[in-house]
Amino acid sequence: MARWDGPSKIYHWLLSFAISFELFSSTLMSDVSTNSAFPAPSSVGVFDAHQIGGITCALILAAYIRRAWRDPQVRDRLFPWLRPGAMRPVLREARALLRGHLPPAGAAVGLPGFIHGLGLLVMLGMAVTGVLNILLRPGVTIPFSLGFAPSFFIYSVESVVHNAISVMAWVYWIGHVAFAIIHEAAGQGVLRAMFAPSPPTVPDNAVQVRDRA
């Protein structure tokens, strides 16, 4: 199994926590502007934390996608549709999965990387619409708005879009966890490879000296 590098693991740890917090906190919060005229104080606190977490999540996602875009290998693994011919292994592994053959896990071009890329886009969409949800909230002046807050209708439409993408994020989150467990049960060690610290790298000259000894 092709192993993930250290930065990819760190981003995965951060995103795992941030996205999980956002999804689960969304089930507990109350939107003070739409859901209730007198929301419970505890739900207001969760709502505030959800907003702060959403902004944090958007920043982490933007940083990771920027890093992935600048690395051709990572870009081809996550977004293979951007390069001609890169979708062939994805389609091949998808057909094999339909026949009951689990694709190999790890940092390699194929179906798992393609699904990860789609998940990143879904989570980015959820984060961006969440940030817009904050900026477009009635009574909040946004940049270049000339001091006029947008109408409640615009905010409501954007909220519907955010909630719809959040459902897609839940589907991805559940599927992601489920397939990680399946890969682990199949002996591919995906959980250990992603969450365990990376082993120290041995310089080439050290290997040569050891071989000579």
UniProtKB/TrEMBL annotation:
InterPro entries: Cyt_b561_bac/Ni-Hgenase (IPR011577), Di-haem_cyt_TM (IPR016174). SUPFAM superfamilies: Transmembrane di-heme cytochromes (SSF81342). It is found in: Cell membrane. GO terms for biological process: respiratory electron transport chain. Pfam families: Ni_hydr_CYTB. Residues 3-195 form the Cytochrome b561 bacterial/Ni-hydrogenase domain. Coiled coil: none annotated. It is a multi-pass membrane protein. GO terms for cellular component: plasma membrane. Its main location: membrane. GO terms for molecular function: electron transfer activity. Keywords: Cell membrane, Membrane, Transmembrane, Transmembrane helix. The chain crosses the membrane at residues 12-29, 49-65, 160-182. This is Cytochrome b561 bacterial/Ni-hydrogenase domain-containing protein. The lineage of its organism: Bacteria, Pseudomonadati, Pseudomonadota, Gammaproteobacteria, Chromatiales.
